[in-house]
Structures are given as structure tokens and as C-alpha cells.
Amino acid sequence: MTDLAPGPSSRRKSKYTPRKAPDQKLATSAMIASLDAEGRETIAAPLGTALCDLAKTRDDIVGLSADLSKYTDMHVFANAYPDRFYQMGMAEQLLISAAAGLAREGFTPFATTYAVFASRRAYDFIFMAIAEENLPVKIVCALPGLTTGYGPSHQATEDLAIFRGMPNLTIVDPCCATEIDQATRAIADHPGPVYMRLLRGKVPNVLGEYGYQFKLGQAQMIHDGRDVLMISTGFMTMRALDAAKALRTDGIDAAVLHVPTIKPLDVDTIRAEAAKTGRLVVTLENHTIVGGLGEAIAADLLRSNITPAFKSIALPDEFLDAGALPTLHDQYGLSVPAITARIKSWL
Amino acid sequence: MQTDTAHSGSNTSLARRAWSIRRTALRMGEVQGQGYIGQALGVADVLATSYFHALSYRANDPEWDGRDRFYLSIGHYAIALYAALIEAGILPEDEIETYGMDDSRMPMSGMAAYTPGMEITGGSLGHGLGIAVGAALGLKRKRSDAFVYNLMSDGELGEGSTWEAVMSAAQHQLSNLICIVDFNDQQADGPTTQALATTPEAPKWQAFGWHAQTVEGNDLDALVTAFDAARSHPGPQPRVIICNTLMCKGVPFLEARESNHFVRVDADEWAQAIAHLDANIPA
After folding, report:
1. Would the CB atoms of A93 and B141 count as touching at under 8 Å?
2. Which CATH class is domain B14-278?
3. Which of A59, A65, A87, A93 to mutate to test the interface with B (most CBs of B within 10 A)?
4. Structure ipTM
5. In three state form, how does the secondary structure of chain A look?
6. pTM for the predicted model, two decimal places
């Protein structure tokens, strides 16, 4: 069990007792809300923009959505290429099956919905119609992990655990707008099926300032350091970079190794970094502690006889609360103050 | 329409084709001592009509882009489709005895990666029609004249995904999609019509915007008429042919056996069934 604040589920159905003063209370963000940019510049709809750019030179690119094109930035592509966009209705099993059929006919379909629906409702269809036949369908899903305050119906906290067991499937969890743009182009070129987590709307740009270039299947050191090795994926790399900055003021030198491709995992880079002595290894992910990046790395390191001090920052194995995202990120340990406090407590 | 078919100009009757499909399926069942023979015997006339009347394909080039696609959603019917593919010259007859064996190209449940002519991996029921919707969209996008046929079972009508695909095909006016339902009223636990309210069948499809026909699925003349009507219907609707078939059709002592999803056939009965066919060769 993680050492987080007490389980909030006891609050449910009990009398309303606010945790914060009235002027500090936050409202549940709209489902379509963007992740808080946290002072960074943002770029609008990186997926849709990249797809439109790709479509200029690639006739095989088509888009599909299951009544969520507006909320996955697919509408940008749909507006620009209406004859290459297929509205499949509120039918995720069909969304996936039809994408498989289009891929069979030589197209490269990008199918979008929310991560909960792709992973929970359409799993068998992704497994059999796409992955088993190794078809080049790109499943790109919004609201990964804890990126909505709507509660478990919309919070895909276990999608990586679900999908990691699927052979042939490449899994990508990009950090920011720059990386979504680059990863969209990279997965379009990849000959097999891909599941990519998506941040949509106004998406913070994080890695652009590091001269970063996404490479499918490759982990990259964004910022090196001597005391702690943070290994992070998705937007938790943004948090890790901010945490590293905060730790520096306390004289702690933390490295951030970004792992955007969850599967296949870049074990060579991860092993090489984790094997360097004297650093606490901390994995960070926007996902349940069960079956995600942390456990994937822990298992590989143990099998490789690499055994550094090892900790994980992840969501608890619980049905998470509804509420405002900043509140929930604090509560579940994904915020920068929560990360720095825990890392300091482990040193 | 059939200028590229392997069978155009053939004098072999559809009855003889169906007979061959039944006989080959029985030989494969005999090898394994098991198999979904009840379904294979029941659907043989539908497959004969498909492969020797309706479909365009090239036996020596199963992936020819101009072919009509034939999706076997019901993976466990593979024994029947292998028999049809052998009769069509797409699979070699001398591999019959490998059916269901290690390293065979003919596994018990049909998979695309194993078998020439097997378009999709079926078996997880309720998948074929949705994939067919995507393929039909893709063929229209490529301005192809090819049809997509999806052969499914009555049991698959119970899967919600089937009805997602049914609505989508109508929404997108997929006139190049022909769904064939093998309605033998038999699923794993008993009669399909006692499991979910699948009846009335054709009115359901019509209400969903399809051109629907119901035919006796073991009547070759009726099948030919229905397939022709499905192909030539001038409207924009997707097309369905609901084929009422009899499990084990063509082998009377098996037809009379208590209906069962996995028909029991004793070791010596395979040869008896083949002997019955050999004594009743159609013209």
C-alpha cells in the first residue's frame, strides 16, 4: 500500500464536509478540460493538427471516432478532411472492428475514444480483430489515468495494465504537446497496432525546450542527476521535471528519464541508468500502481539482477474520487509538492 | 460479374459442389475424430452458392485486390470453409489429413494468418460484421466494385456488437455488404430461439434499414435467387440473407440425431456417413 492520505471512499454518502476553506475550493473541471498548463505555453489540439499535416501526403490516413471526435481533437481532422473521417456513433466495439476492416483494405486508421471505453469495452475487439492480425490501427484515447474529475466511469486508471498483456500492441504515453505531435507521426509510420494515451485541448508544451525528439520504443534522459533517478511516463515527466527543480533547492540532484513507450519497454536504457550506483530509483506514472510502468521496470530490473533502492509514485489500487483535478492530484500524490515530499522522505 | 471466378464456365453443378464440400468436411472430421460437422453439413449449400455462384475470386491469387471478400465470423465453421476452399482450388486437397493437427494450415478455429483464403480471424463471435463494415467502407473509398460477404451464425445475433454493426452499415449505406446468417437454431446450450428473442429475424433487419431475405438454406435454387437478388438490389441498403438450415443436412442418420452444437459422431460413423454420400452422388 502506498503511503497516501487516508482512503477517501469513506467520505462517500456521508455528510458533506468540505476539506478546504470556501475561497480555496475548486470545482470539478469539465470533462473536456485540458490539463492545467502550470505556467507553460500550450499548443492546441496537437493530435488533430498532426493528423491534418500527415494527411496532406498520405492518402491512407483515415480517422474514426465513437461520438467523441470533439473531445479527442479528432474534429480538427474531421473538419479538414470530412470524406476521410468516419463517425461510428456511440459504439466502441464497432469503432475498433471497423478500423480493423479499413486497415485490411490498406488504410491506416486513427480511432479515437476515451481510454476507459477502448480498454474496458472494446478489449476483445482490439485483441482479436487488430492485435492478433497485427493490423496498423492506431487507437488514440483521451482521459488516461487521472485526467478527469468525473470518477471511475471516465478515469482510465488501469488502461496500461489492461493493454500490457496484449501481444503485438505498442503502447505510448506521451508527455506533452510536442511529444504528441512527434509521436502521432511516428506511430503513423509504425507497421503494427498502437495504443496511445492522449492529452487534448490546450496541451502544455514541456519537452520542446529540451530539443527533444520522440523515437518509438526509446527512453530518453531529459535531465541527468546524481542522487535520484526518476523514471517517468506521460505527463508525469512534466511533474518529474518540476519536482527535480524543486529538489534542487534542497540540494538534491535528481535525474529524469522519460519513458514514453511503455511497450516495448526500452529495457537497455532503463537497466543502464538503474545500474549506476548511488541513486534512488523512483518510477512515476499517471496510472494505478498495479501493472503499469513501475511494475514493468521493477520486474525487469529484478530479472536482470539490478537491485537499486526502488520506489514508485502511482495511483492507488482504488476507485478514485470525483472532484477537481488539482485537488485529486494532491490527494493521490501526483502533484509536484506531493512528489517532492515523498522523495525527500525516502532519501 | 464472374469473369474472374475460378468456376466460371464450369459444368459442375452446385449440387455436386455442395456434395463435395460435405464429403471433404466428413473426411477432415474423420481424421480428427471430431469437428463441427453438424454445422458444416448444414452450411454446405450456402458455401457452394457463395464460392461457385456468387463470389469473384482467383484461386491462384487469393489476395487479388478485386476479389469479393468472404469473412467467416464463425471461426468454428472453419472445417466447412476449408472444404469449400479445397473445392475452389484455393487450398490443396492433400492437406485434408492435417486438419486440426500440429503445424497444420487448417486449425480447428479459422485464423487469417494460417490459411490462404481465410480473410479474418473469427471465433470470438460477434466480430465479423463489424470488420465487414470497415472493409465495405474501405472498398467504397477505393471505388472498388467488390462485395464483402460476412457469414455469421444465428447465435451471433445475441452479441451487442452485431447490432452496432447492423446500424452502422445502414447509416453508411453499405450496399456492398452482404451478410449471410446461418440460422440452424442451435447454439452451445440449446436452441438459439430459446436463449434470446432472435425472432422475427427478417423484420428486425428491415427495421434497421437492411434489404432482408429469408430463404431455405439447403435449397440451392432458392439460395441462387437470393444471392442474385442481394447483389443486384438497386437500393443503397446493406443486404442480409437469413438462411434456415438443417444441422447435419445430407446425412440422414445424423440429421435424425438429437440436435446438438457439437454433434456426437462415433468412430465408425464417419465412414458410414461418407458411404451414404458416395451412394448418392448428384449429377
Report:
1. no
2. alpha beta
3. A93
4. 0.94
5. CCCCCCCHHHHCCCCCCCCCCHHHCCCCCCCCCCCCCCCCCEEECHHHHHHHHHHHHCCCEEEEECCCCCCCCHHHHHHHCHHHEEECCCCHHHHHHHHHHHHHCCCEEEEEEEHHHHHHHCHHHHHHHHHCCCCCCEEEEECECCCCCCCCCCCECCHHHHHHCCCCCEEECCCCHHHHHHHHHHHHHCCCCEEEEECCCEEECCHHHHCCCCCCCCCEEEECCCCEEEEECCCHHHHHHHHHHHHHCCCCCEEEEECCEEECCCHHHHHHHHCCCCCEEEEEEEEECCCCHHHHHHHHHHHCCCCCCEEEEEECCCCCCCCCHHHHHHHCCCCHHHHHHHHHHHC
6. 0.95
